[in-house]
Amino acid sequence: MRRPTRECALVAPMLTAREGELSPEELALLETHLAGCDGCRLRALDFRATEGIVGEALQAAAAEVDFSRFSDQVMERVAAGAVVERVAAAPAAGGERSVHPEPLDFAAASAGYARDGLRPQAVVEERTREEGRTHEGAWPRILRWARAHRAAAVAGTLAPTLAAAALIVYLATSGTAASRLGEVEVIAEGRVPTVLQTSDGPVVLLDEPSGT
Amino acid sequence: MQADDLALVSRAKSGDAEAFRALVVRHQRKVYAVALGIVKDPDLAWDVSQETFVRVHQHLDDFKGDAAFSTWTMRIAHHLAIDVLRKERAGTRDALEDVREADLEAASDGVLAAALDANPQRGVLRRELHGKITEALGRIPVAHREILVLREVEGLSYEELAKELGIPKGTVMSRLFHARKKMQALLGEYAERVGGDRDREEEAGPPARRS
After folding, report:
1. Which of chain A's residues have a Cβ under 8 Å away from the Cβ of B58?
2. A169 vs A123: CA distance, rounded Å
3. Spatial separation of the C-alpha atoms in residues A157 and B134, rounded to whole Å
4. Contact check, Cβ <8 Å, A74/B54
5. What is the mean pLDDT of residues B128-140?
6. Mean pLDDT in consecutive groups of 10 residues from the start of chain A, 212 residues
7. Which residues of A touch B49 (CB under 8 A)?
8. A54 touches chain B (CB under 8 A)
9. Which of A53, A84, A199 is the best mutation test for B, with the most CBs of B within 10 A?
10. Do residues B155 and B69 make contact, with C-beta atoms less than 8 angstroms apart?
11. Is this complex's ipTM strictly greater than 0.90?
C-alpha cells in the first residue's frame, strides 16, 4: 500500500460525512480518489463500520443506570428553586423565610430587616418575640445601627405582624463597601434553616420549602 | 414524539408539575448520555443531567418551539457539561485541526471494518466494544469527545455542528476525523484480538461463515 499523499489528507475528513453533507465537488473528488487509493478505501470501511458506535455505547451506558430517583430529585430541586425565586422577587412578603444578600436593603427595615455586609463565620442569634425582638451576640456596630434606627425598631414593636417577619439580619463588614458573604448560621425559634447554594451565593431558608 | 413534547411543554409552562416530570423521564437518559460522553465521570454526568433539567424548567418560557424540545434540552446539557470541563478543555485543545499525511499512517486501518463487518458475531463484538468505548472516550481530548457526542448522540449535521461549536464546516470535518480516528486507534487493537479469536472459533466449527 502506498504512503498517504496530500490528496489523501485532503479527502480524509470527507470520510466522516453522511449522505447529503458533501458538496457535489467534494463528492466527485472523494469518489475519484477512493477508486485509486487502497489506503483510503480501508479507512472508509473503518469509518463506515464505526459510524454511530460512540452514540450506541453512551446510550447503552445510560440504559444501565438506575433512574428511579432522577425525576424526584429534579422536582425537589425545581421546587426549592421556585421558593428562592419567589422570595428574591418579593423580599418584603417573603422575609419570614429568607436571607438573601442582594435584593434586600434598608428600605425593608420597617418590615424587620437589618442589612449591611455579612461577615464570614458570623453567628446570628435571632429570636422573635410577641413584644418585639432582640439580637444576641451581635456586634457593637449592630447596636449602634439599632440606636440610630430606633424609629424602625419602634415601628417593628408597634406592628407585630411585621415584626414576625423580621428574621433577617445582615452583619456589618469592616469599613469597606465590598460585601462579602461567608458562612452564616441563623438560629430561629421554631424554624429549621436550610442553606441553598445558588449562583448568587448561599440562600438561607428558614422553612422547609416543600414541607418535608 | 415531538408533538407530545410540545403538549407537555405547554402544560408545564402553565404550572403542571407532572407534565414537566413526564418530560424529564422522557429525555433523562439521552441527556445523561450526552453528559457522560463529555464529562466521563458517572456521578458528574448525573449532576450535570440534574442541573440541565433545573435550567430547562427555569427557562421553559424561553422555549418557543423553533427547535425540537429534545434539541434544546441537549444543547443545555452540552453547554453545562462543557462548562464543568472548561479548564481541562483549555489545556487540551489541539493546536492543529488540519489533517496531515502523517495522521493517516496507522496500522489499524481496515481492522475495525474487518472485525465488525465480516464477523458473523459482529453484534456481540459491537456490544463488547461499548464498554471499551466509554473507557476510550476518557483518553481523547474534550473537544473530540464533545464533537463525537454531538454528532452521534444528538445526531447533529456538519452545518449544525458548525453553528453549535462556532467553527467552520472544514474544521468540523477535520476535528470529527481526528476524533473518530483516535477512537478507532484505541479500539482497533481490542477488535483485532477479539475478532481474530472469533474467526478462529468459527473456522473450527460448522461452516457458517459468509462467503
Report:
1. 81
2. 10
3. 64
4. yes
5. 86
6. 85 94 95 94 89 92 94 93 67 40 30 29 33 44 57 54 48 44 42 54 49 39
7. 70
8. yes
9. A53
10. no
11. no
Nearest to A123 by CA among A137, A111, A110: A137
Q: How far apart are CA A1 and CA A199, in angstroms?
A: 58
- Higher-scoring residue by pLDDT: B18, A120: B18
Local structure of A158: helix, strand or coil: helix
In sequence order, the 6+-apart residues with CB closer than 8 A to the CB of B28 are: A67, A70, A71, B49, B53
> pLDDT tens digit string along B172-192?
999 999 999 999 888 877 766
Is A50 within 8 Å of B112 when comparing Cβ atoms? yes
Q: Grid coordinates standing for A146?
A: 439599632
Q: Which of A64-73, B25-34, B87-96 has the lowest mean pLDDT?
A: B87-96
Nearest residue to B163 (alpha-carbon basis) of B98, B67, B84, B81: B67
Cα–Cα distance measured from residue B74 to residue A40, given in angstroms and rounded to the nearest whole number:
34
Beta-bridge partner residues of A123: A185
Q: Which cell is A111 given?
A: 418590615
**Residue showing cell 478543555:** B89
**Residue A159 neighbours by CB under 8 Å, 6+ apart:** A110
Provide the H-helix boundaries in B94-141: 111-117, 122-137
